[in-house]
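Task: sequence design from structure.
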């Protein structure tokens, strides 16, 4: 019996993700879970690991973790524990009308259990699939053929999946908590944000800053993020004799607050779906110079020379020119900043997550609701 102060939940939905730690897919999953819960869904979030949770779920969401980090063993045993746990969850929850999952391995694991799942499976590919290695390409190819709906972030990626009929382009939403009403004071800091891995091409950023600071020695570079490339990047910084001007800030939760007064944001990725860090920088109003990378996310966000600057991949001199233009031309910099902020309306979370809600309801619940 439902008490007077309780709200009846209309439907169930399960989100399946590797963890709630650090990455863009993990953050989107957490935000979606919270949104659906607030829309009166009963929500389960199933994770492979509980390692270093950085995103918080709304109280009332049911978190199921398949492998306790304290009990982690060898890789093969870990995989078996996760697989058995996922299979057990699926077989014990046959009434779940819809599963949402992201990333190739997760999508593969879930669709391997297709015969036990009576509801729908919606997959979201959060990166440029043309850059996947052979294994991830196989995993995603297997999964998308067996899913009921596909969510991607850009038109370029949608074209890659043109043979998948039931697909939709939904960009990332802005986290409204990061928005500052006004940048208090522009400081002589250049910032870059993202995991320290080859995809992000930090050597291009470091080399660009090296050339830029010859003319502007009063500027510093701050790099926010962590990853396997950290040591090699620090060596590169030392080779350029920039140790006193380049700071590796590590992973921090309050990145938007820390970068809000930066003079410029740099991103040199070789490929991206739609970068959350770029979205946040633009919505804060930081002028951005970014590569027109594979995946098409940057060019869907940036109208070149209007709300940001696009440069070719690996084009160091173009990045230096763009950075210099922003620093040396205050009028141009202000125009870029003011236009970038307009992205807040386009990527309003209520609008974006409602697109997700419509797609999920159309695919997983519409037939059921019509029959009532």
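Answer:
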């Amino acid at each position: 019996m439902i008490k007077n102060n309780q709200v009846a939940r209309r439907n169930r939905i399960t989100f399946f993700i590797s963890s709630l730690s650090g990455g863009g897919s993990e953050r989107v999953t957490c935000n979606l879970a919270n949104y659906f819960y607030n829309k009166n869904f009963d929500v389960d979030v199933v994770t492979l690991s509980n390692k270093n949770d950085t995103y918080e779920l709304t109280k009332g969401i049911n978190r199921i973790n398949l492998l306790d980090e304290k009990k982690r063993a060898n890789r093969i045993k870990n995989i078996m524990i996760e697989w058995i746990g996922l299979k057990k969850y699926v077989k014990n929850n046959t009434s779940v009308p819809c599963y949402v999952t992201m990333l190739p391995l997760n999508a593969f694991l879930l669709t391997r259990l297709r015969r036990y799942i009576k509801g729908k499976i919606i997959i979201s590919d959060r990166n440029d699939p043309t850059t996947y290695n052979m294994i991830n390409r196989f995993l995603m190819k297997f999964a998308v053929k067996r899913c009921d709906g596909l969510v991607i972030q850009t038109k370029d990626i949608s074209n890659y999946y043109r043979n998948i009929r039931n697909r939709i382009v939904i960009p990332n939403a802005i986290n409204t908590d990061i928005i500052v009403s006004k940048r208090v004071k522009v400081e002589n800091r250049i910032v870059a944000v993202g995991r320290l891995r080859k995809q992000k091409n930090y050597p291009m950023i470091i080399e660009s800053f090296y050339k830029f600071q010859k003319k502007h020695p009063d500027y510093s570079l701050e790099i926010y993020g962590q990853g396997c490339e950290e040591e090699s990047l620090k060596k590169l910084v030392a080779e350029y004799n920039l140790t006193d001007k380049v700071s590796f800030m590590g992973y921090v939760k309050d990145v938007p607050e820390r970068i809000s007064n930066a003079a410029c944001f740099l991103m040199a990725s070789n490929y991206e779906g739609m970068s959350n860090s770029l979205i946040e920088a633009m919505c804060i109003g930081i002028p951005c110079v970014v590569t027109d990378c594979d995946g098409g996310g940057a060019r869907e966000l940036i109208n070149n020379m209007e709300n940001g600057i696009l440069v070719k991949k690996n084009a160091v001199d173009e990045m230096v020119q763009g950075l210099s233009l922003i620093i040396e031309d205050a009028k141009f910099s202000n125009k870029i900043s003011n236009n970038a902020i307009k992205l807040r309306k386009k990527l309003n979370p209520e609008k974006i997550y409602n697109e997700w809600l419509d797609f999920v309801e159309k695919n997983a619940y519409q037939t059921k609701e019509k029959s009532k």
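The CA atoms of residues 265 and 288 lie 5 Å apart.
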